[in-house]
Amino acid sequence: KDNLSRCSSQFRAQALIPFVVEQTARGERSYDIFSRLLKERIVEDEVAAVVVAQLLFLEAENPDKPISLYINSPGGSVTAGMAIYDTMQYIQSPVSTLCNGQACSMGSLLLAAGEDGKRYALPNSSIMIHQPIGGAAGQASDIAIHAKEILKVRERLNKIYQKHTKKHSLEVIERAVERDYFMTAEEALEFGLIDRVLEKREIKSSDSDEN
């Protein structure tokens, strides 16, 4: 019965994922939509381990070809976000970032960490930065250890924001993240988290179009 329930749950989950059919030289080929996005070197930021694996796979496939990281995230675990951030910096492939919806907390840090000149947001996106949130319970010495650690994490994150915005002192960043700081796409552009607000996808003309 347990196996049947698990199979049923997996089937329902798969049924919610749309499939697309593509015509190739060898006939029709179907992809689930996430595999199709991966084929186009577009990565979603939903699960850190999956994102890291996708980034490493795409780099191994072609280290010179750009990767697009689409971000629509309310934030989440700092350690998970840092795993994605470190991988973005580690791989040779240039990673452009685009916020389509929201990029809050660690989502905003990943947005800012894209390739210089390739960090975008759609016009109605919402971007939010703040200091890390944490809590601890137990004996006083353990609480003190956790408090010290979260202060170190906050300092590290502030330095990353400063590195990628390139226009603010560390003191300005510290004041900005003191509380939840929400920005529109235009305000994020002014702050230095993104390089451009996109209203339409840019379509490059092919050589045949130019002739």
Automatic annotation (TrEMBL):
GO terms for molecular function: ATP-dependent peptidase activity; ATPase binding; serine-type endopeptidase activity. It catalyses: Hydrolysis of proteins to small peptides in the presence of ATP and magnesium. alpha-casein is the usual test substrate. In the absence of ATP, only oligopeptides shorter than five residues are hydrolyzed (such as succinyl-Leu-Tyr-|-NHMec, and Leu-Tyr-Leu-|-Tyr-Trp, in which cleavage of the -Tyr-|-Leu- and -Tyr-|-Trp bonds also occurs). The active site is at 130. Pfam families: CLP_protease. PROSITE patterns: CLP_PROTEASE_HIS. GO terms for biological process: protein quality control for misfolded or incompletely synthesized proteins. GO terms for cellular component: endopeptidase Clp complex. Coiled coil: none annotated. Keywords: Hydrolase, Protease, Serine protease. The keyword Hydrolase applies. Belongs to the peptidase S14 family. PANTHER family: ATP-DEPENDENT CLP PROTEASE PROTEOLYTIC SUBUNIT, ATP-DEPENDENT CLP PROTEASE PROTEOLYTIC SUBUNIT, MITOCHONDRIAL. NCBIfam families: PRK00277.1 (NF001368), PRK12553.1 (NF009205). This is ATP-dependent Clp protease proteolytic subunit. It comes from Funneliformis geosporum.
